[in-house]
Amino acid sequence: MKTLDILHSRPFGFTRDEIAAYRDRILEEVRRSGSEWVVSSSMSLPAHRQWLRSYDWASDIPQEAVCICVDGIPCLWRREWLRNRLSEWNSRLPAARFLQDDLMPDDESQIFRTETSFSGGLSIEGSGSRNLTSRIPISQLHDREYIAPLLAAAQQHPPHLHVPSQQAACSVTRVKPAVSILMSVHNMRDTMGWSIRSVLAQSSEDWELIIGDDASDDDTLEEACFYSDPRIKILLHSRNRGKAVMMNRLLEEARGRYILELDGDDWLAPDTVRLLSEALDQAPEAGMATASYAWWIRTRQLGPVWKGTMSSVNPPEQALSSQHSALAHPLVPRMYRAASLKAIGGWWDREDRFGRIFEDIELTSRLLDHHLLVQVPAVLYHRVIYGSSISQRSRDLFPAWRKSR
């Protein structure tokens, strides 16, 4: 029986630097390990680790396997393979706890999948034994349900990483795309890398991403240039003027017939661009498309934690501007027909406190005064909520904003 070490690195935080530090800690422990197989205490459930210590599982492992998944969760790794994988890993994640999913081998033949049973042994997947998924917190199941497909899609579209001395490559453009994705950011260096990665992992490649840095004073610009792709363009404001002003500037630069909003701390499902643009293609009378979204709570120790899914409009025909403007939250996601958006003058271009808080609700209300809305029955957007954000701290201002319209 092969031996294994239990590594004691723990996931913490979700910022760019914390994820890198977490990776480095695990890598150092892997390098010190003398076992052929290693398992991290932060990469499996306690019940998994207990069984793996006591059960003679190793005799069933094929020689070509480098990763063992228990109940769908990657838990064990061949030491040398994991060391090489960690040494090369340099990507962006929403939280450190998803590192094990990003380390999964590209080749399915290198993965050995098993299930645990309540009797205390391991059985080959598909044997019909009961497994531990009922003991996994529901939020953790949905975390992986939404993150793993995006990581798999990202592996199918590996990004070109930016070389610091070639920053100008970030602003190279190419042929006119169908969809322009607009992202206004301010001091979002720790989250926007994952947002951009979700764009690069789209099943449709017919897009451009225009990022507007609204006078950030951190490393947001550096993070915006982390991925070198000719479809990404970056604009700068020397003075912070708010999202509405920046979005109108980005709209002037957009070349797509559709406009998709993406906040720098949110992310897209892999089929977002394709499904929303197809919905507008099939409904020429509609000026906007939306769908359902998953909402996540930003925590200090675990990063974003899944809380549920929501439908922006149910049923769709209730999405009249008078009704929508009575709600203190925007439609999510939002893909506009560019011509319709420009016809109403774009965003409410004011720099007071209201112009920086409710600009998206106001815009969609005006748009829906003149155009229909089409809704896609799928979860296509992931929205992260955190209590210290300006939108959450300003919710009590919504009645005053409605009176000021």
TrEMBL record:
Residues 180-304 form the Glycosyltransferase 2-like domain. It comes from the Bacteria. It holds the Pfam family Glycos_transf_2. This is Glycosyltransferase 2-like domain-containing protein. InterPro entries: Glyco_trans_2-like, Glycosyltransf_2, Nucleotide-diphossugar_trans. Gene3D superfamilies: Spore Coat Polysaccharide Biosynthesis Protein SpsA, Chain A (3.90.550.10).
